[in-house]
Amino acid sequence: MSKRLYLVLSDKCNRKCEYCFERPHSGKISTTNVEDIVSLISDALSKNYEVYFQGAETFYYPDIKYIIKKFENQLSITTNGDFINDYDMNLFKEIIISIHDEISNKFFTKFEKIYNKIKAFNIVVHNFNYLRVIKDFLSIDTKYRDKIEFVPYFSRATDKTKDDYYLSSSAKKYIEHITKQHLRERKTNTEKYKNWIKVDLVKMVFYPNFANKNIPINNIKEILL
After folding, report:
1. Residue 56 in contact with residue 13, Cβ under 8 Å?
2. What is this structure's pTM?
């Protein structure tokens, strides 16, 4: 079973997607000493954790170039892809592109130089966009289609009937039928996620099993078994 450490260094993003899982964004950037972050990553890697950067958008963190160069081909990232030309993306082990709008051959060609590094193109699917998503999906080259993963939008609202973005069961079945692909389920209490830990160095919390304020790096290291 894989062990993963998700690091959040930025709660700032250049996009304002209504159905983003991480909204609302505070716009804040982690002030944790970069060498402490490097130490945490080193410790996690030594314990065979896969280390992923998540956002909002990680590339707003000022020392990200320093970190990825120090751990060449050892770190992974989820990004909206808007800043890939400003960084050496080949320094990453894996890249996940989170797509919220265009799905076309022209759109995907901007990722051609880093295609082999890209693990997946994540496309958020909800009631307002699923018919367009399927139409666009069927029109693109198989090369890109093979790396697309559909992520169903699940509302944070208690009453899902009040949230029009929530992916209905009928829409979900339609997508599965047309694409013959599996939607990724966001279930955090399954065996699969048992050894996945997320550390938010902006809001100073880490979970799924822990939540605290002003957590020292050494305290986080203690739970990396």
Report:
1. yes
2. 0.83
